[in-house]
Every structure is written in C-alpha cells, then in structure tokens.
Amino acid sequence: MPAPTVALTPPMGWNSWNYFAGKVTDKDIRDSADQIVASGMKDAGYIYVNIDDTWEGKRDENGVLHTNEKFPDMKALADYVHSKGLKIGIYSGPGTKTCAGYEGSLGHEEQDAKMYAEWGIDYLKYDLCSFIPDVMHKQAPNDEAAQMRLMHAAYEKMGKALKATGRPIVFSLCQYGWDSPWEWAPALGGNSWRTTGDIEAKWDSMYTILSQQAGLEKYAGPGHWNDPDMLEVGNGKLSLAENRTHFTMWAMLSAPLLAGNDLPHMKPEIKDILTNKEVIALDQDKLGRQASRVYSDGEVDVWLKHLSGGAGAIAILNAGSDRVSTHPFHLSLTRLGLHGPMHAKNLWTGEDVEIRDDMPIEIKSHDVLLLKVAAAK
C-alpha cells in the first residue's frame, strides 16, 4: 500500500449538512470560510470547508456534471476558499443518485474526479445511498457477499480515479460501517471511513457511536482513520457537559473533527470547546494512535490514548443518567498499566493535578475528566 500523502493527521474542518442541509448555497460556503477564519477556528486547525449534498445539477450530452443554480461557479468558489488559506471539500456517491436525490457518479467516476481536480477540490465525501437499490440489490439480490464485493469495487473505482488526477484529495468513505471498512478501505485509497450509521445531536446517539469504536484502534493511523461521523458540538439540545464530552472523545479517538454548527451564532462556550488547542492536540498527535477503552466500572468508562514522546491522555467518562454522581468512582492506574502518583494536567480547566491509584473522583452525569500525563508507561 503506497504511503499516504493526505490526512497524515485526522482532517479538521466544517461540513455544511448539519446546519444547512439541502439549503446550502455558494454564499453560505463563502460566509462559512470567512467565519472559520474570523472565529479563530482556522488558527485552531479547522482547514476543510466541505460542501455536502445538493450542489449538483444535471449532466449534459457529454456526461459532464454541471452545478445547479445555488453554485454558479464552483472553480471560483474553490479559489475563494483557498484565498482564505483553507481547503474545500465536495460530496458525491457511487450510485445514480445522491442521498438527497441529486446526480451521483455511477459510470462517471473518472470524469467527475478529473472535474473535481480541475475545480481545485481537496476532499471528497463519497456516500453509498442509491448504490444500495440501484446496484447492490439489483445485481446481487439476496447475496450479501456479492453485494459487499460490488460496494468494494465502487469505492475502489473512485479511489483510483482520484489518484489518477494527481491532485492530493482526501477520500472519505461514507457507507455506515458496512462490511468492516477498516479492514479494506485503506487498500482502496480511503483516508477515512464511517464506522457506524449517522450521528444525531443527542447523548444516546453520541455515546452509542463512541462505544462502537472500542476495538477499532488498531486500524487507525496516519493517512487512514476511523470516522465516527461529524461533530454535533453546538447542535440540538446537548448540554455543555455533553458537548465537552463529545469533543473530548472524538479527539481521543483520533477522529476527523468536522464541525457542523451554526458558525455566525456560535456561543462563546461552544467556541471554547471547539478551539481548545490542547484537546485538539490529542486528536492531531503525530503518532496517530486511537484511544482504547481500557475498562468500565458501572457507568464510568476509562479510555487511554498513547501520545508521541511517551505521553498519554486519560479520559474518564460518566455515562450515568443521574444529574449528579452520588458516589465517587475510584480510578485504577494499575488497570491502565500506570504507576502513581503521577502529575497530570486537566485539559479542560488547565489545572495541574496529582493522580494516584484508587483515588476517588466525582464526575457529573454525561461529563468527562480529561487528563494528560507526561509519560504513560
């Protein structure tokens, strides 16, 4: 497998779908690029401005896909985003239609990839959707193994088409974790792959997806990442603790950090979460090691992430539904393979703390304690 040239750390940016969905326009993307710069998100590492579904128009008699009236000039838009020191992403799928019913790339993979490169696109989210009924079910009814082979071939075809352009384009597979893509996507040129179904801005959705990442850590590394879906930080009715926990755990997972919030109306406390540089540094650590869930004790999960230089991060998460933890949790350094007492830094408060074996810790419901230790041996 050739050495990757993109996504050497998990991609960071913003995607249009969670906030704009099918209403996104050229102006929205330009404004979002401006806001990413003005808010400090660019300085914190958010680089990709990704257009999701509904930019597509119709194909002409030569098969060339044109944009619709919402996006009058995609090359000019890409140039604008690039002028801000950012990169731009786009969306398609291997079926005849996208998830929203717009033109897909089936039968036009090389043509579309070449067009993306000519526009200056830096990232492609490739979403399965209509490929399921159009190809998988039609060509291989009731044969799941054959259906999976068709899916692999579809992603491989676009992976080769992107590579043939000579432009470094992040290839993000969106097929909901079917057939364990972590085992085969890197060989097809995939830089990230969805591991589960779609996330919602709800605690149960976020925590269920988080739990499903346990055991996948060996498949993540520079150039190829498990993707538990976009960030819902700042969306829905997530509490401040839930937003903080969501962001913490995606960083611990070395997941792509793709925000999807309302940028012009971002609350200061949400901005503080999304731009916490020490938490982001865990996600962007050059070692590229995804955290492992080492153990759970009742409703408390303990995750450990190895960092470059021998450092480590410990995330202790209270998944319990009681509004306040009524009894202390006792941290076992021994079960983490560590020996106390150890000096650590709380990455959300900035406080220096000493941790020791069997120390009692109080964590409120749906909140997290995130500690960085100098040497996790």
Automatic annotation (TrEMBL):
It comes from the Bacteria. Its EC number is 3.2.1.22. It catalyses: Hydrolysis of terminal, non-reducing alpha-D-galactose residues in alpha-D-galactosides, including galactose oligosaccharides, galactomannans and galactolipids. CDD domains: GH27. Pfam families: Melibiase_2, Melibiase_C. One of its GO terms (molecular function) is alpha-galactosidase activity. Gene3D superfamilies: Aldolase class I, Golgi alpha-mannosidase II. InterPro entries: Aldolase_TIM, GH, Glyco_hydro_27, Glyco_hydro_27/36_CS, Glyco_hydro_b, Melibiase_C. Keywords: Disulfide bond, Glycosidase, Hydrolase, Signal. Residues 297-373 form the Alpha galactosidase C-terminal domain. Belongs to the glycosyl hydrolase 27 family. This is Alpha-galactosidase. It comes from Occallatibacter riparius.
